[in-house]
Amino acid sequence: MNRLIVVMVVPVTAIILVAIFLSDEVTPEAALFSHDQCRVVEVTDARYRSMSGIEDIALLPGGELLLSSYNRHLTSAPARGLNTVPISLLLEEDDVFTRAVPGTHLTFGTLHPHGIAVDRSGSRLALINRKPRDDTAIVAWGSLTPDGFVERGRWEAPQACRANDLAWRGAEIVVTLDRESCEWSMSDLMPGAATGSVLTLGFGEAEPMAEGLAWANGVSLDGGSVLVAETRANRVTNLSSGAVTEFSGGPDNLNPGPNGTQIVALHPNLFDYWLFTMQYSSTAPSRIVAWSPNTGQQEVLFDDPFGEVYSGATSAIYHRNTLIAGSAYGQGLLVCRR
To answer: Do 283 and 329 contact (CB within 8 A), yes or no?
Structure first.
């Protein structure tokens, strides 16, 4: 009986401690885009299925977006995969069709994409493909052309199960591992836990780059510097210089923006976001900022402290005065235009 009590009490205690650690009242901030300048665009795949769970976004040459979508809450034929859509179409329509990237389903079979990265030329793609049933993942890379994706290599290892995001650094790929254990572990969940890490892949060989990170999430390059979002510490760490920048929320994905900025999707209240991901709440706060790693300046582009317009934004692109964001657990795309 005592053992049963311990088994029941420990997880509950952990949840309570995490809730206390992560809970904080969200203070609204002035933003470049008002709610009136933003709307949610419904996104549909070629089989007329509504797309949700657009977790990551990458900007392609020619003004197209590459969307990584997989809604973990949908079990019956969800619209998922890698799709492209012109930005111009998002500005004109409230419901748009996307085009699937040819070759991806042939390469992976069932596709559950997570983080994606496209190099500056737009000719190389790297992605993380989850395998939910056995909680594993692979990191794959290859060439990307108008004709589709052709795999050139992949990394499969037990630790790949926690691969979260990636970025090209020359011929190498930088990969974040958000936490240590493939299963839920007390060491990963307790307040102050720093079990995330970063590695590099060169010719398929994994080399450690950093460890002791508080949920290593988004990764991006600023010149030669590697920037990593530590979601549970509300900061981005420059692994090259050691510089740390604090944010008004837990940073998720990072994407290069105009004039040397990084576009950072923030979760202003991580406990509210957790409730949203677990379907205990129908909304979650969203905040998107443009951050200059060189000057440290931060400009709030979009702020929705109560999820009234768009909930739980996880990735954003700012291109030609247009802000576009996706959400790993939300519906459609947020599109803001001044």
So the answer is: no
Q: Which residues partner with 175 through β-bridges? A: 166, 199
Give the separation between CA 291 and CA 61, rounded to whole angstroms.
23
Token pair for residue 326?
């996706």
| Averaged pLDDT, 124-145 | 89
Q: Residue 286: which residues within 8 A CB-CB, separation 6 or more?
A: 265, 266, 267, 268, 302, 303, 304, 307, 309, 310, 311, 312, 313, 325, 327, 334
Q: CA–CA separation, 219 vs 212, rounded Å?
A: 15
Q: How far is CA 232 from the centre of its chain?
A: 14
Q: Is this model's pTM higher than 0.90 or not?
A: yes
Number of other residues whose CB lies within 10 A of the CB of residue 17: 14
Spatial contact of 130 and 123, defined as CB atoms under 8 Å apart: no
* Rg, Å, the chain Cα set: 19
Q: What's the rounded Cα separation, in Å, for the pair 304 and 31?
A: 9
Which is nearest to 139 in space by CA: 199, 210, 91? Answer: 199
Which tokens sit at 235? 């900061």
Q: Per residue in 94-106, pLDDT tens?
A: 999 999 999 886 5
Residue 144 identity: L
CB 269 within 8 A of CB 250: no
3-state secondary structure of 233: helix
Q: Longest Cα pair distance anywhere in the chain, in angstroms?
A: 65
First-to-last alpha carbon distance for the chain, in angstroms, is 63
Residue bearing tokens 């508080």: 214
- Interatomic CA distance for residues 242 and 131, integer angstroms: 34
* Residue 257: both structure tokens together: 């923006």
pLDDT tens across 202-241, in order? Answer: 876 899 999 999 999 999 999 999 999 999 999 999 999 9
